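User: quick one, sequence for these tokens?
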């Protein structure tokens, strides 16, 4: 495959260079006179232009074919990722980055991948513990401990892996609670975590990772509980430990119940972005309570929440003066948002910069 890529790239880079038009070798003074020279110059000029245009067309077609060959080769290699290509697992070098966006590798992300990531974070945890001991020692022992802690976990170029800060494994359907719990035992530095589409996770895995990372700023568990419905332990863990959350995404979390919402949002007063779309069991009472405990909300997505009415909208606009986006669109409306014109004027008067999606 790499040979095909190189050939296609070479075909693009080695385009045909137009040849210089052949100069006229006729002498300046022709015995046939100036009239014959003019006719010859006109015919020669038209033929030169025709040959130049045809040459440019041929070059353009050649470049187009070469570019198509390169595109097809890249698409084929991407389509065969993990099936017939050289990638059968996530590269280890990729896991030694503080920001891990593994969504493009979701088909290859398994429990073994998370266990390997936990192993790297365990080294960081051990190194930090070793460096803490240096504060109580002196002399040669201190220098030995400092050099050991400095060299452990050092990467190419003098960089050092200090732990995972950003982890996105959206769509990793093969990841289970066992590996997430192993990662939670050694990784306490996460600020962004996306477990959307990880259908095998249960309350145990989400509880473990959220309890271990109390400084989370963004949590995405869209679609969680699809295979194993959650019973509320995860929601209680988020609300009791993640007090610094700014963004919380719970799209299609159909397991969410009203009492879970109360425990979850009461402990996260600094939330600015929430996504509760397709959570059909939400009612006006829950949204009113959320507006009271989370006054800093700016972005609220409530699409397909068919049990909401005007009361929920008014509670959000009154309780969240910084609201800038509100989505309420739905196909089947059990309780319609009535008086749209009046509601729009109300929103503009309370939140002048708000953008509302009602249709």
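Assistant:
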């Amino acid at each position: 495959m790499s040979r095909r890529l190189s050939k296609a790239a070479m075909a693009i880079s080695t385009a045909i260079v137009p040849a210089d038009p052949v100069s006229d070798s006729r002498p300046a003074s022709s015995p046939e006179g100036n009239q014959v020279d003019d006719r010859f110059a006109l015919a020669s000029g038209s033929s030169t232009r025709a040959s130049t245009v045809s040459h440019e067309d041929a070059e353009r077609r050649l470049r187009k074919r070469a570019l198509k060959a390169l595109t097809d080769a890249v698409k084929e290699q991407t389509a065969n990722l993990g099936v017939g290509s050289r990638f059968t697992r996530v590269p280890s070098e990729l896991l030694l980055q503080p920001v891990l966006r593994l969504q493009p590798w979701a088909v290859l992300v398994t429990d073994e991948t998370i266990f390997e990531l936990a192993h790297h974070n365990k080294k960081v945890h051990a190194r930090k513990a070793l460096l803490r001991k240096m504060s109580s020692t002196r002399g040669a022992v201190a220098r030995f401990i400092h050099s050991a802690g400095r060299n452990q976990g050092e990467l190419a170029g003098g960089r050092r892996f200090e732990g995972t800060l950003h982890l996105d494994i959206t769509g990793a359907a093969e990841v289970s609670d066992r590996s997430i719990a192993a990662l939670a035992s050694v990784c306490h530095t996460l600020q962004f975590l996306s477990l959307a589409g990880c259908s095998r996770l249960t309350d145990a895995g989400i509880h473990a990772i959220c309890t271990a990372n109390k400084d989370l700023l963004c949590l995405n568990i869209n679609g969680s509980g699809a295979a194993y419905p959650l019973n509320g332990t995860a929601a209680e863990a988020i609300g009791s430990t993640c007090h610094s959350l700014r963004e919380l995404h719970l799209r299609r979390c159909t397991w969410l119940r009203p009492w879970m919402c109360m425990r979850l949002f009461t402990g996260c007063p600094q939330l600015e972005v929430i996504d509760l779309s397709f959570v059909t069991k939400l009612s006006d009472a829950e949204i009113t309570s959320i507006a009271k405990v989370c006054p800093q909300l700016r972005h609220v997505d409530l699409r397909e929440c068919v049990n909401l009415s005007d009361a929920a909208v008014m509670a959000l606009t009154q309780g969240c003066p910084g609201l800038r986006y509100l989505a309420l669109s739905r196909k089947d409306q059990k309780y319609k948002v009535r008086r749209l014109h009046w509601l729009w004027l109300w929103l503009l008067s309370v939140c002048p910069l708000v953008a509302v999606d009602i249709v």
